Structures are given as structure tokens and as C-alpha cells.
# Entry
Amino acid sequence: MNPPGGRRVAVVVVVTIVALALAVVVGLVVGPTPIGLTRIVGDLFSHIGIGHSTLTSTDSTIVWQLRAPRMVLGLLAGAMLAVAGGTYQGVFRNPLADPYLLGVAAGAGLGATIAIVDVGSGVSTPSWTPLLAFVGAMVAVGVTWAIGGRGMRATPSTLILAGVAVASLLTSAQTYLQQSSSKSITLVYIWLLGSLSSADWHSVLLVLPYVAVCTAVCVAAGRALDVMSVGEDESRSLGLPVRRVRLLVVAASSLGTAAIVSAVGLIGFVGIIVPHVVRLLVGTSYRRILPISVLVGAAFLVLADTVARTVVAPSELPLGVVTALVGAPVFVIVLSVRRPVAR
Amino acid sequence: MNAVEVTDLTVRAGGRDLVSAVSLHVEAGTWCTVIGPNGAGKTTLVEAVAGLRRVSAGEISLGGRAISELNERARAKIVSLVPQHPEVPAGMAVREYVSLGRTAHHGLLRGASPRDWLVVDDVMGRLSLEEFAGRDVVTLSGGERQRMVLGRALAQTTPVMVLDEPITGLDLRHQIELLELLKKEVADAGLTVLATLHDLTLAGQFADRLVLLDHGEVVLDGRAGDVIRSPELSVAYQMALRVVEVDGTDVVVPTRARTSSQ
# Structure
């Protein structure tokens, strides 16, 4: 089979953009309180002086203070996790790589658990949980990088192995801590499974700069990752400063993932599956995979979150459960329709 | 002028010298082939010239510039590499693979310019690769694949090309075909070639100079015809070699030891 041509890629991009627009609408419209799209659009126009809004102040609060920030945070999280996963797969030339490979998840989990257990009330998650999660994630990646290759001399396999070691160490510490305090165990579980339920504009603004910069770096690295598909020695002979590129893109994808994880907890599946689905559809070039993964990841996570918050309303399903529950069948379908072009 | 100048090069790894105090030079626009038994250090030597090995002692300069002072990108504009076991990235089209050779020219943030594609398509034409342009690289046969790898190196438009056993796994016709293509580039474009080859007959036919390497050291360095006929060759390979002239071509043949009871 030949690599897919430009026409097919264009179709995929158009379909993805439509899905993304749909996700945005669904994220605003769907919920226990029915608020129609036309009324939301009317409200938007009224803010710029065209016509007037038919939204009550309660409706307005539901749409703009609850659903909108949650939808936007979902977009950011989905985009970041998907592009980070795709970047990891490229830089480690390993199809099983996901954004949590170097210990980000385990470090964040330990940080969050420390924060939650420390208060011990078992009623609510303390406000500094994201900060500790973020610190935990970055420390974990730093330790992995320090062990796995002493900075610039890191090779993919030593880094992956160091990541496995660091992750299991931190996870066992996290499990021990979690089990030692029965009062807060539910809160820890809820955090670990990931959720967008605490989203507000503050958390959106907090992660936005990280996601914007890190996503941009990853997408820009697509060309370098394509060159790296011929291996380290050959890409060096082609003029690619492999080690510097690797350090830069691993730092960017880890930093962005850490920011997202600290805000929404551990949402699995997006980072590993979205880039694979995209690869099956548009071929193996990271110049295509990465930007399209940004769009697909964003749309996918918002739609999954809509399912998570509506199916058993007023309570919620853990988002990490829904991403796998919805994502796995989708992946199986794509896999059986398209013969994989990836190795 | 010398396009490649290696002075007292030592490459150490795992506590032993893979190449020790090797000096050699390749004049611009000529072809030098490194021969020697397995483990003699041929691959290490040419990879060091391509800038891929850490130099323990000595110096390598390309076109008068020390390789240690060049960054990856600058070096890739001077020397290209055809590796012994090239990676074949499944899912990539042949034309795109050849265009990887332009990486050092257009950089990582900009894509290949129209000029870059002009170079790529010109190389594809010279190597009769056009018909495969849109094909997935994994679908090519061994001979086509090796021609494609040569294409990538030519697209790099470097004055020096390093090739490590470029004809491994090819049948006779494709071996000769590939070497002829390379010879033409040396003659037409003034390319400087540093290669390793196992086949001594082809090594003698296609190089201006041969360097015999054994145990990481240079044993012989001279005109191809002289090295092929020298008695040191048999010593290095630890077997009796004879040179037979067939239609004006020196053919190196191994002679089996007759004392053997087999």
C-alpha cells in the first residue's frame, strides 16, 4: 500500500474540524438543564450589541461559568495529551509510548495523594493539590532523565527503562500512602481517575500558557521526528542534532502533560490511542499526525466528558473510564477498516 | 587537495582500540576503498569520518575543516553517509525518503523549498527512481532500496560521500549497477568517495586507491592494482589469495588449502 495522498488527508482534516465544532456545541448545549444553541448564540451576540439575550442569569451562569470553562479545559487537555503521546511515540520510536511513559502520571499521583492525605478531612480535595501534582510530575521526569542517560547522552531505551523504574517506585509509594488513610481514599481515587468537574476559568487560564507553548513545540518538531524515523545515527548524518531535539521535545511534552494532569488528574487512553487512530488515517508522517492529533484529541475528550457527565447525571462517571470505554471500540473499528501502515 | 584527511585517528570503545593511529587521505574527486577482514575496524573508521563516532585521539578534517569544529548541520553539508544497514521507515514514500537528504539544507523549521525538490527530482532521474516516487519504501526490492539510499545521500549534495558495504545483499548485476552509478558521480560531479567493500575484485575495479586495514591499523595504502597484488593481503585475510587476470581485469580468488583432509 502506498502512503496516503493529500486528498485523503484533506478529507480527514475537514471531518475532524466538523467533529471539533460539534464537540464545542455539545459541550455547551448538553446537560441536565436544557439550553438551546440559538439562545446561547443570541446571548453571545447580545454581548457585542446585536439583539438581546433570552438567557436567564442562572442559564447564563450554567453556560458561561460551568459548561464553557469545562469544555475549554477538555479541549486543552485532549489536545495536549494527544500531541504529547504522538510526540513520545515519535521520539522514542515506540508505538506503546504514551505521555505518562517517563513517570509524569506516577509523580503527579504521588504529589496529589500527599496533598489529599495530608488534610485528611476526606471531604474535599485541598486547593494546593494541583501544585503538588505538578511538582511531583516534573520531579519524576527529572529523576527519570537524570537516571536514564545523564542529560544529553540519553538513549530511548535507557530513558524508557528508567521511566518504568521511577514510575513503579513512585506508584508504590503513592499506593502505600493512599491505603494508610482510609478517610481520604475515595478522594484519591476520584483524582486518579481524572475529571473535568472542577474546571473553572481560573484553571483554564492556569494551564493555557503551558498547553499553547508545549503544543506548538511538539507540532513544530514533526519534521524532526520524521527525520528521526531513520534512526539516531542516520538522522545525525543527515544533519539533525538528535540529542538536543530529543531533550527539547521530551521537555515540552512532559511539561504540558504535567500541567494538564495537575488540573484534571490522570486521564488515560487519549495519549496513546488518538495518535494511533490518526496515524492509521493519514499515514506515518509526524508532520500530519501531530497537528491532526491536536484537533482529534480535543474533540474526543470533550465528547467523552459530555458522556461522563450526562449518562448517570446528576452524578458523574470517571472521565478516564469513559475515554477507554468509548475510545477502545472506535480504535478497534479503525484498526479493522484500515490495515496499519505503522510497524 | 585532500577532501578527507585522517591523522593518527584512534577510536576506543569498551576498553580496546577499534581503530588505532590510523592516517589516511583521500584526494578530492577520487575513490578510496577500505578493505580488510571482519573486525578490522573498517566500519568504525568510515563512521568516524562521517562524524558518528567519538574520536579518542587524532583528527579528522573534511575539505580542510576539522570535523570536531563542525556542528551536525554544517557537517551534513560536507559528508553524506550510505550505512551498511539502513533503516527503512515503513509508510514513507520513496520521494520523501530521498528528500530527507535535503534536511541540512532547508533546516528543521522550514520544509523543502522548490530548489530542494529540484535537486531531489534530478537525483531520482539520475538513479531511475522516478517510477517508485509515490511507493512505500518497504515495498522496494533490495536493489531498488539501496539505490534509494544512495539517492538520499546524493540529494545531500556533499563533496564527500561515505559508504559502508553499500552492496551487501545485492545480486551481481545490482552490485555492479550501483557501483557504476557511483563511479559516474565521481567522474561527472567530482564526488569524493570513501567506501568499505568485502568483495576484493570489485574493490580493485572500482577504486582509485585501496587501504588495507587489519586489527585497527593500516597495513597497506596504495594504488588499487598494487594493493590487490600484494602478498600482505593473504596475511591479513589469513588465507592464500591469488590474482588471476581475466580479460584485463584482476580477479582475486581464494585458494583452498590442499593439505586439508576434507
